[in-house]
Amino acid sequence: MPSPTALVAAALGAPLLLGACTAAPNATEGGSATSRTAYATSNGPVRSPASSATSASPTAPTGTPASTPTPTPDPASIPALIALRYDAGDLRLGREGGSTNAYRQYFVTYESNGLSISGRINIPRGKGPFPAVVLAHGYVDPAAYTNGETMLRERDHLARHGYVTLHIDYRNHAQSSRDPSNDANLRTGYTVDAINAGLALDKAPFVDRGRIALIGRSMGGGVVLSALVARPGLFKAAVAYAPVSSDTVDNFDKWVRRDTSRAAAAKAVISRLGTPEAQPARWATTSPRTYFGRVTEPLLIHHGTADEDCPLAWSRETVAALKAEGKSVQLDVYPGGRHTLASPQWDTSIRRTAEFLATYLR
């Protein structure tokens, strides 16, 4: 069997897609919990290939570089996320609502590569600038989603502890701009929006530049993993609650391939990529795990043993792959914990999150 590096290099010129979704507390999706990777062996996770997003151009027999240009990566691929020039507009504060004696809360928008993304921001009262956190939510049907409706506990707790918290709605959600290509690209646009949120915060006068973290839950945990490999160095630290798999095939099989209501999406993906069985190289390049060698930020993962949507095994595999690359990663396991942690386990998790951020956002 060819090595993972060879498989990746062979596939870089082919159409690539990154995808998966997961359930939020009010939008659970079922499916098999079996984890399978397009590029791992039965002996455990493989090491990531070199972090380069493209392979070298072939060389002519005479030693003169060939004129064949490097193929442009598919816009839905991890190499495309790595190569993308991110263009974030300034944060614009809108109406105030939901403020407390500890922070002011506003409707907010910012530009993300030409799209307007809405969200909610909490700004601590007092003299700034403050460290900041981007919050990437889990799956909620975009047609039913309303501005800032999720991750309320995390936003409140962290704002009360002195962090600016920017909860992003993603494209196609709430008052954000429409992106009709996002589903066909298996939602890589969400990663673009999270990265641009970090860049927008870094320009805000009330934010302490360079002291920004990224937190995601469920599907948003997958956004965290993709953002870390696409734009290393932007965030100082990251936290993932019950994240989806770092192997795209696991997520595609669980939520797209076997769901009859998503037959059209599955067909569109397979028509471009082929099946994971027939085209493992293409599918390997869609997974953030393949590029874990690029990660520079410490990562904390929270996961319950009774998670009904994202099996704990996925996080264990992610941690093993990151550790194989020598990365700083910590997995906190909650016995009996469901996909959405309840108190007192959630209270423990947010305390650990605050301690983690205090350590790395100094």
Describe this structure in words.
- The chain has helices at 4-11, 78-83, 152-160, 188-203, 219-230, 248-257, 263-273, 280-284, 312-324, 345-360, and strands at 92-96, 103-112, 115-124, 130-136, 164-168, 207-217, 237-241, 299-304, 329-334.
- It is an alpha/beta fold.
- The protein has a domain at 81-85 and 139-146 and 185-360: Alpha/Beta hydrolase fold, catalytic domain (Rossmann fold, 3-Layer(aba) Sandwich), CATH 3.40.50.
- A 9-stranded mixed beta sheet has the order 1-2-3-5-4-6-7-8-9, sandwiched between helices.
- The longest helix has 16 residues, at 188-203.
- The protein starts with a helix and ends with a helix.
- The model is unreliable at 1-61 (pLDDT under 50).
- This is Peptidase S9 prolyl oligopeptidase catalytic domain-containing protein.
- Residues 29-45 have a biased composition (Polar residues).
- Residues 48-67 have a biased composition (Low complexity).
- Belongs to the AB hydrolase superfamily.
N→C terminal distance: 46 Å
Instruction: Provide a count of the helices.
Output: 10
User: Mind telling me which CATH architecture of the domain at 81-85 and 139-146 and 185-360 this is?
Assistant: 3-Layer(aba) Sandwich
What does the main sheet amount to?
Answer: 9 strands, mixed
Q: Based on DSSP secondary structure assignment, what is the total number of beta strands?
A: 9
SSE sequence, one letter per element: HHEEEEHEHEHEHHHEHEH
CATH class categorisation of the domain at 81-85 and 139-146 and 185-360: Alpha Beta
Judging from the principal axes of the Cα atoms, what is the shape? globular
Query: What percent of residues are in strands?
Result: 15-25%
Rg over CA atoms:
20 Å
Within the CATH hierarchy, at the fold level, what is the topology of the domain at 81-85 and 139-146 and 185-360? Rossmann fold
Low-confidence residue ranges:
1-61
Class from helix and strand fractions: alpha/beta
Q: Into which percent range does the helicity of residues fall?
A: 25-40%
Describe the strand arrangement of the main beta sheet, using strand numbers: 1-2-3-5-4-6-7-8-9
Tell me, rounded to a whole number, the average pLDDT: 84
The CATH homologous superfamily of the domain at 81-85 and 139-146 and 185-360 is named Alpha/Beta hydrolase fold, catalytic domain
